[in-house]
Amino acid sequence: MLEFETAPPGDYIYGGNLISHFGHFLLGFLSRFWIGQHLDLSKHKIICHGAGTPEGWLSHKFVRDILSSIGIDQHNLMVFKRPTIIENLLVPWPSCEEHNYVHTNYASWGNMVGQSLLRNRNLA
Known about the structure:
The protein is α/β, with parallel strands linked by helices. The protein has helices at 22-29, 54-58, 61-69, 104-118, and strands at 5-6, 12-17, 45-49, 77-78, 84-85, 89-90, 96-97, 101-102. The protein contains 4 helices and 8 strands, in the order ββαβααβββββα.
């Protein structure tokens, strides 16, 4: 019989496969976070999977900078190694899929992320 674990209580978002290659990160992982236009991502646990660990993913400056600009840090990232029951889980559809489609939410979300990254920076 298959055994399940139960996730700690809280609100979760499925982030998907986190690949720390810049293009894959933007198109495959970040494209699900358009929902951040409607809710505070920092209050959610982000379920991700992929090669590596949250510590390893965040060792890449662009991953760390982009995620922190949208309120996500190491404490938000969750990796479950076993089948896990999650009581409250949002699964946002990706707003961009390579070679297939791009939703306008991807552009507006990208603009919000960019503005957050550039806030308090002198570009002159």
